[in-house]
Amino acid sequence: MSVKGGSSVIKSSLIDPDGGALVDLVVPESERVSKKAEAELMPKVRLSKVDLEWVHIISEGWANPLRGFMREDEYLQSLHFNCLKLKDGTIVNMSLPIVLAIDDKDKEAIGSAPDVGLIGPNGDLVSILRSVQIYKHNKEERIARTWGTTAPGLPYVEEVITPAGNWLIGGDLEVLEPIKYNDGLDHYRLSPRELRKEFDKRQADAVFAFQLRNPVHNGHALLMNDTRKRLLEMGYKNPILLLHPLGGFVKADDVPLDVRMEQHSKVLEDGVLDPETTIVAIFPSPMHYAGPTEVQWHAKARINAGANFYIVGRDPAGMGHPTEKRDLYDPDHGKKVLSMAPGLEKLNILPFKVAAYDTQEKKMAFFDPSRAKDFLFISGTKMRTYARTGENPPDGFMCPGGWNVLVKYYESLQSEETSQQPAVLST
Amino acid sequence: MSVKGGSSVIKSSLIDPDGGALVDLVVPESERVSKKAEAELMPKVRLSKVDLEWVHIISEGWANPLRGFMREDEYLQSLHFNCLKLKDGTIVNMSLPIVLAIDDKDKEAIGSAPDVGLIGPNGDLVSILRSVQIYKHNKEERIARTWGTTAPGLPYVEEVITPAGNWLIGGDLEVLEPIKYNDGLDHYRLSPRELRKEFDKRQADAVFAFQLRNPVHNGHALLMNDTRKRLLEMGYKNPILLLHPLGGFVKADDVPLDVRMEQHSKVLEDGVLDPETTIVAIFPSPMHYAGPTEVQWHAKARINAGANFYIVGRDPAGMGHPTEKRDLYDPDHGKKVLSMAPGLEKLNILPFKVAAYDTQEKKMAFFDPSRAKDFLFISGTKMRTYARTGENPPDGFMCPGGWNVLVKYYESLQSEETSQQPAVLST
User: What is the pTM of this model?
Assistant: First the structure.
């Protein structure tokens, strides 16, 4: 809706976005041995990779004020109202159900036990779930209300929901150790608390967040640099950009996290974004591709991490309809829904200008409708096609260092595919 | 959630449930001729029977503070949040999208005209729609988010949404004359304003509403009489029952409105409910069968009409899943969602006890789990089977006068079916 100025808004937002302290659900080191011993005796539930991403998310306070996987009251509020009402009457945005599914056998094994041990995908005991509540997992209803469709082919549904059990188990998490991935990228995984410290250290008086799950091209960079300029014009002295790629589950044809992180590094090395005023960190959430419902989650989590400006574009968290030839969501609905979402009133939404390749100026520029024919729109699909076929995109589309990362990735992918499935072309 | 007592709550609720006056969108008589002449010159949209029911609903303030069919901002809030935020920050419950669909031809004919004339199903000009906004009607998303399923066979979807156009048109209503049906039942169609007057006239200090779309059996009556007793015990001096059958669109196998009204009259005549403390009126809304989403609408509309206690039962506004052998909704979700719904905080929800036929006492009684085998549950389907086959239900299930109305109706239906389709048995 609006760009709300004034540094008073910002300061209160940096300190305390939700009227409560950030949760940290990781057990203190001194208690780990005893808690582990206690957990060993509990009935166990095995987590999938995505379940573990949610444990990570909840444990660090991104989903504040959630203390664990949703119980039924929270689940129903999330599903029907996209927000939770706290005991004191405060409305908190909570648009995605953050739930843990179990099957009949798990349910039987748990019986009436109050607490459950959660086992990570590699067999380690990662957390206790306290005071559990088990309730029905009506997948059809969850999918319909979250995505606004039940068409087959939604990536998160196929990967996470369809194979999951018919029960949900809610409870409070006590995470036994900080969640680590040991993939060489853990130093990018700053918690909301760590991000806030970093903003303080840099003496940010405004933090603007940019959510992405794609390589950064010069159109993105133009937008981010322009946003910084506008914030300076609004009177902020030190706006800091949180370049915040999503690090959890993404669909198979998205560029993998390690490649994206390397590409983002090059963009900073090449000076397209200013390292002095940019923090690059990983947002550990899995991706739902649930459009207007999910964009609220993306914004809410960043507020919890101390951001107070959020850049929202065309069709955020959207994708093509899985069975029809159209966008799944109206491209304007994400922005509209976000601007009206209960519990996100403090958020300053920054309208996203459309950037495209200006064939006259030979660079990415804000689209000028008066000379529309000079502009070339390069979609993600088009970009991937360039990289895959080894064709160079137009000069000025992306910094050369960043582009090379992508070319290398698609080359490796093709040689892999060729060696595995010689007769099949990648799509 | 809770039964909130205290007469202070009630008085404020009777006067002003939403912090604003009830709307009345019917044009004063003195202006009708000139408004009609003005409307004649506008582009026209033809209303279906159900569209007209919504014009009726909106015009009398049941959907307060809506002044007309939803524009896109209201539609999106309803769909995603089940509530609207007013300019002053007030949250108002609004769980069903109240929208008017038009097709491509209508859209073209309207062009950029600001105002549109609405034509009733019988060809009369019924209303002006002012300052219209036309936006896309994504039926799949609307259905998924409203019903939590897109399975074929949802009655409102098949009757109203599927045949409708691919655009929605919002705007402010100026209704040219009060909506009348001329079916001999208009005297039962009291507006929220008229109901409030009636409650005042009877000096009600509590009004408890009972929503139904089925004949009243002695189990319902037991519940209503018991509620009155409990309200008296809570200290209210004159609780009034609003027996409020739904009068708009219902699915084909529900008992028609005229038969239900006759049946309800007999129940009062036979003294099963006390006419002194009961007001029977028709709620002119169409039925969605959208369970937890719709029960909020049912409650909200009755608050607007001055009720402050709402009786909610098992699976309110629910039905069987259209393609699977199960209830479409969890039978407890309606009550739970209602108790947490934003904008309905003032509502006092009365838990619904389960009544069944006590074969020992030979009457409807509250179910006693300690002697479960003595109780007979008579479903709507079972009741219809009794009436259709001419078999009498157990003594004490329904007053004889009311029962005869049903028997007569099913007899007339069978002779009709026999004469029309001699080889087909009704189901």
Answer: 0.92
